[in-house]
Specification:
The complex is a heterodimer of chains A (about 40) and B (about 180).
Chain A: H1 2-21, H2 25-41
Chain B: H1 2-29, E1 48-49, E2 65-70, E3 76-80, E4 82-84, E5 87-92, H2 98-103, H3 106-112, E6 115-120, E7 123-132, H4 137-148, H5 155-159, E8 164-170
Parallel strand pairs in B: 1-7
Antiparallel strand pairs in B: 2-3, 2-6, 4-5, 5-8, 6-7, 7-8
Classes of the chains: A mainly alpha (about 40), B alpha+beta (about 180).
Amino acid sequence: MNNVFVRIGLVVIATALSVWIVPGIDDAVESVFQIIVLVAST
Amino acid sequence: MFILKRIGVIGLWLLLIFTTAVVTAAFKQRFEDGPNRVFSGGPLISGELYLGAEPDWQFVNDISTIELQLLSPAQSRRIWVASVDGKMYVWSGYMNSFVGQLWKSWPGQAERDGRVVVRIDGTRYERRLVRIKTGAVLDELMAVVSEKYPSRSSGAAVESGDVWVFEVAPRVTANTANTAVGVES
């Protein structure tokens, strides 16, 4: 069980760092989020 | 059965990654000079500060969105805009709905402290939001809005409180306590 929590933590940290550091990822994520919001609201 | 379980686990991992990415991107945007498309941004820093006479805002009817920043809290967002009789208006819909009350915090914040900075085509304007609850201008405004955006509303919706409309007024003429805020360079 502990192993699962460690994995979750590592995935969250790796994802957050990638979005924060790598240029363009945040914009791409926002685009996908925008599409989901648009689809959900129609 | 094993395959379904496996797909479910992979789906949960992907959901975790996407959720983390969205939260991080939204948080990161708070430190940027202005909003992006959906996520709120930080204070509007760049751009020349307009110091002249009150413009005829009719030109905003040719602009899809403006950037609007409250002073308290100092966060900015991209927002629809329309003009009637040379005055500029912004609005927020779904204010009587549960989702609206959950999602839209800026109208309430603007009612408490209406001082804003708007940035249009790279020029910043220090203004004040003044809520308009009644008046003949509302129907005219909503007609402009319906023509400009895929949105249908009416003056009655504004009067019922479902849509909150604000005039983006000059700070010095607004009927509020902090009318003497000067123009900073």
